Amino acid sequence: MTNAQSASVKPKSAMEEIREQQRQSWNKFAPGWKKWDAFAMEFLRPAGEALLKEAGLKPGMRVLDAACGTGEPGLTAAKIVGTTGHVIGTDLSEEMIRVAQEKARCLGTANYEATAADAGALPFESGSFDAVLCRMGVMFFPDPQKAAGEFFRVLKSGGRLALCAWAEPQKNPWATTIADIVNRELAVPPPPPDMPGLFRQAKPGTLKSILKAAGFKQAREVEVAGERDYDGPLQYWELMTEVAAPIAGALGKTDEASRKKIQDQVLKAAEKFTRGGKIVFPWSAWVAGAIKP
After folding, report:
1. Which letter, b or e, does each residue of 176-185 get, where b requires 16 or more Cβ atoms within 10 Å of its Cβ?
2. Which of 16, 111, 249, 257 is the most interior residue, by most CB within 10 Å?
């Protein structure tokens, strides 16, 4: 490369760097999500049902499912809008998109498609959707407010946006039980408050504020909570180390002895949630919705 060519190559912005890190991370852990898909989708089903209800879907609607992951709740939305409607799932991860496409084919869902796209720069015309869904994706967007602006743009007037994000850490021990131990034992520094992460919009009212700032009206936010059971502490450990990128990433940088020490501590901590022969963790999430005027 010549000096002139080098000078013409612009360095990536901080947002572009975050975007690329997110894409690589979700691509890397897509096999884990595929392996645990049935378990994870059952876990997320109640939040997805609340999201779909908030979106007010009806037959014939054209729907966008942003940060679709392995396909839900978009595939369920496709059933609701019927053959006269259509659902498009988008995700930053090409590997996640492949899993979603595969599931749609296996289910015979002809009115669903999935494509790789950045929520902050959607490849759709303005006013082209009746509803936009985003379940547990907004926490990881490089710029959530920019994504909300894009959702506003692609919605028709009167269209609804429904978002979902995890609530406060203390209400979600399924995540914090392992994360707290890993972070403590490996001295993992806490991320900056506005960096992508599980509890980025955990504070009550945060999602609602994002919607209002994007121009949406009649914004509202409700808490959805429940429980998820695991066969035992080992299943919990295996799942979290195969799908949770921050956990797996931190553990991948340590030696086997340290990993075993951490595993023992996590298994012991998880046992505190034993009930009826299962490990039962509570969970809580915020579901927010609003209308484009």
Report:
1. bbbbebbbeb
2. 111
- Within a 10 A sphere around the Cβ of 256, how many other Cβ atoms? 7
Structural contact between residues 73 and 65, judged by C-beta atoms closer than 8 angstroms: yes
Asked whether the beta carbons of 65 and 164 are under 8 A apart, the reply is: no
Give the C-alpha distances (Å, rounded to integers) separating 4 from 7, 9, 11, 94.
Answer: 5, 9, 14, 33
In CATH, the architecture of 16-172+199-228+284-291 is 3-Layer(aba) Sandwich (3.40)
Contact 202, 165 (CB under 8 A): yes
User: Would you say the C-alpha torsion 54, 59, 65, 69 has a positive or negative sign?
Assistant: positive
Q: What pTM does this model have?
A: 0.93
Selection from 54, 45, 44, 22 nearest residue 208 by Cα: 54
CA distance 233 to 229: 10
Reported as a single tens digit per residue, the pLDDT across 50-90 is: 999 999 999 999 999 999 999 999 999 999 999 999 999 99
Contact present, 104 and 112 (Cβ < 8 Å):
yes
Q: Which residues of 70-85 are buried (b: 16+ CB within 10 A; e: fewer)?
A: bbbbbbbbbebbeeeb
Retrieve residue 90's tokens. Answer: 């988008």
C-alpha–C-alpha distance, residues 150 and 168, integer Å: 26
